[in-house]
């Protein structure tokens, strides 16, 4: 549920805002002065924890459940943002899933499920953002540095993120005249549950040693990039920012 509070304060929608990079981005934008709609798919408790963390420091936030690939539910998400905070100025689309396997062995049902969230979900969220974002706003999608790394097992995931980058480039040009920036962040190996799940300690250590900075990224590292693109980076548009510690 959400209350009606019309205001001119800048507001952001963060998909996948209940954990990992999405949560850190939501909290960072709140610290930057944004009111935040924390979108989640299933874990209400974690989304509410994000909201509580924001409100505990004086920020404003609500949680809202919606499947990013469902156009009706995402339209309702934007309705909630507009009704509660008066409009939307920034959309951070951090929701995504990752399934890994060699291409020759990849389950096609798993491929369809992942591409539904990562490709269709990006399209649906960006479509609503393009229709409803206030002029002067920003759209921030999420790609991945695995596109350049070409790691075995990542073919399906990298293909989905390649589609995200293509959509980002095209939409930036389609929004000509509205002063809306559209960019993508492409993290390298980052210490989130999405990255760590299913990997042994040796694999994690090997990945941490690849960047010249010799560590994994953190969700806070990526949230700093989101803050930059949502805030002062008004001359950065139609770009993919590879936040990966110099790995590629």
Quick summary:
The chain has about 250 residues and is an alpha/beta fold. It is built from nine helices and seven strands.
How does this model look, in words?
The chain has 248 residues and is α/β, with parallel strands linked by helices. It has 9 helices and 7 strands, in the order βαβαβαβαβααβαααβ. The protein has a 7-stranded parallel beta sheet, with helices on both faces. Helix 1 (20-31) packs across helix 9 and helix 4 packs parallel to helix 6 (155-174). The protein is globular, with a radius of gyration of 17 Å. Residues 1-7 have low confidence and may be disordered.
Sheet of most strands: 7 strands, parallel
C-alpha Rg, in Å?
17 Å
Per CATH, which architecture? 3-Layer(aba) Sandwich
**Ends distance:** 43 Å
What fraction of the residues are assigned to beta strands by DSSP?
5-15%
Backbone shape: globular
Q: What is the name of the CATH superfamily?
A: NAD(P)-binding Rossmann-like Domain
Share of residues in helices: 40-55%
Class derived from helix and strand content? alpha/beta
CATH top-level class? Alpha Beta
- Note the total helix count: 9
Which sequence of strands runs across the widest sheet?
3-2-1-4-5-6-7
**CATH-defined fold name:** Rossmann fold
Total strand segments: 7
Model regions low in confidence, pLDDT < 50 over at least 5 residues: 1-7
Mean pLDDT, all residues: 93
Q: What is the total number of structural domains?
A: 1
From N to C, what is the helix and strand string?
A: EHEHEHEHEHHEHHHE
């Amino acid at each position: 549920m959400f209350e009606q509070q019309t205001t001119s304060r800048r507001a952001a929608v963060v998909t996948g805002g209940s954990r990992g990079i999405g949560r850190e981005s939501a909290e960072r934008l709140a610290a930057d002065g944004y009111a935040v709609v924390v979108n989640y798919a299933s874990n209400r408790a974690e989304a509410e924890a994000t909201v509580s963390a924001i409100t505990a420091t004086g920020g404003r936030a609500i949680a809202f459940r919606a499947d990013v690939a469902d156009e009706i539910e995402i339209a309702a998400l934007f309705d909630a943002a507009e009704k509660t905070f008066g409009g939307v100025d920034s959309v951070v689309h951090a929701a995504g899933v990752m399934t890994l396997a060699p291409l020759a062995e990849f389950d096609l049902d798993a491929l369809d499920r992942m591409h539904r969230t990562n490709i269709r979900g990006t399209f649906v969220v960006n479509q609503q953002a393009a229709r409803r974002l206030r002029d002067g706003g920003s759209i921030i999608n999420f790609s991945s540095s695995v596109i350049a790394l070409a790691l075995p097992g990542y073919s399906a995931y990298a293909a989905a993120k390649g589609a995200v980058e293509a959509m980002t480039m095209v939409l930036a040009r389609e929004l000509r005249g509205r002063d809306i920036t559209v960019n993508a962040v492409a993290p390298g190996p980052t210490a989130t549950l999405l990255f760590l799940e299913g990997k042994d300690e040796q694999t994690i250590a090997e990945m941490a040693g690849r960047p010249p900075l010799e560590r994994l990224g953190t969700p806070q590292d990526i949230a700093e990039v989101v803050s930059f693109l949502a805030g002062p980076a008004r001359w950065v548009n139609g770009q993919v920012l590879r936040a990966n510690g110099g790995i590629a």
